[in-house]
Amino acid sequence: MTRVKQRLHPASDDPLTLPKSQITFDGALEKYTFQPPVSPALQRDIWRTTNDSPLRASTSKTMKRKADEAIPPSTTKRVTRSTNSTVPIQEVQFPTQQKRKTIVTAAVPKSVSTKSTPASPAIGPATKKRKRLSSGYAPLSKYAHLPNLLTDSLAPSLITVFIGVNPGLTTATTGHAYAHPSNLFYKLLHSSGCTTRRCLPSECKDFPTLFSLGNTNIVSRATRDASELSKEEMVQGVQALQEKATRWKPESVCLVGKSIWEAVWRARKGRAIKKEEFRYGWQDEEENFGINVVRGRTQKVETKDGAWAGARVFVATSTSGLAAGMRPAEKEAVWRELGEWVERRRAERAAESVIEGRLVMDGALDAAVAQDGNGKP
Questions:
Q1: Residue 239 and residue 230: Cα distance in Å, rounded?
Q2: Quick one: which of 128, 168, 203, 355 has the fewest CB in 10 Å?
Q3: pLDDT digit string, tens, across residues 82-93
Q4: 93 by DSSP, 3-state: which?
Q5: CB under 8 Å to 257, separation ≥6 — which residues?
Q6: Residue 136 — very low, low, confident or very high, per pLDDT cuts 50/70/90?
Q7: 28-41 as b/e, with b when 16 or more CB fall inside 10 Å?
Q8: pLDDT for 35
Q9: Phi first, then psi: what are they for 366, rounded to 5°?
Q10: For residues 210-248, b (16+ Cβ closer than 10 Å) or e, as one string?
Q11: Alpha-carbon distance 53 to 56, whole Å?
């Protein structure tokens, strides 16, 4: 790069009005050098190779001496590669801005390809995200040392009884249903309308009196997740559910998870449910829960209040944090269908209780009038 020096006119070319990046001092104050801004590395190389650089002579002599010591001009060395092939060394000179430098390169034989090869993968631990492996069946002895404090929350004539798969380890040790922090059970109950507020796991035992809701499981033993249960355990638990439904006679049962309905179907039909046969939501009336199931149909059970045709069956999505097959909005849509029905039945029951209370009061007044001989209450 050439350096241009000129004397500025004091009136028109005032150096104070010029950008600082374009002004460098050279010698006297009235002399200026105009050059575009360059990188520090390029400025250092230009400065070392200029005629007035104090390091030019010593630097060039040192570089020449090292080059001469490394490879004498009259000889040619051979370098042995890891592939046991020898490649001759040649001297290649190319011009620079103000000085010729000697670069030593290796002559590549014709048999060696000059194309760039892809970089080999780094040796080290795998960077892929590890998939969560299924735990598989766990025998009874695996968690026999842990306490199982969870009990059923049931009462006669509830609006809905929620049926889960089995208690997890957190639920078993605390005695609170769906107690794991990642479980969405209480969140979905509130958003769907089944409960009037967001409840805590410790309140599950008060659900029959607070909201006319109950809770039980198809399998009673605790495991880390549902995959540690066998299909035989799930099928055997269906009979216990039928007996509970017949004893407590709820209006409906909600199966919290697809796997529970698959076990019920297998116990009733003797085969696995087909893909086109499964659906979330309310099931057919012939699938009502009751103990008297003959050829896939529930027979009516005579009670004090009349014939009871069994509890309606609603299949809901799993609330476990491990169940990620559906989006949150899709889960809420399924649960909302149940919540609307629960809200309607709760309002109807409240209205019925008011009517019954009035009838009781009217009956008491009639009885008091009848006892009064004057016909006055």
A1: 16
A2: 128
A3: 444 454 545 545
A4: strand
A5: 164, 165, 226, 316, 317, 318, 319, 320, 323
A6: confident
A7: eeeebeeeeeeeee
A8: 55
A9: -65, -40
A10: ebbbbbbbbbbbbbebbebbeeebbbebbeebbebbbeb
A11: 5
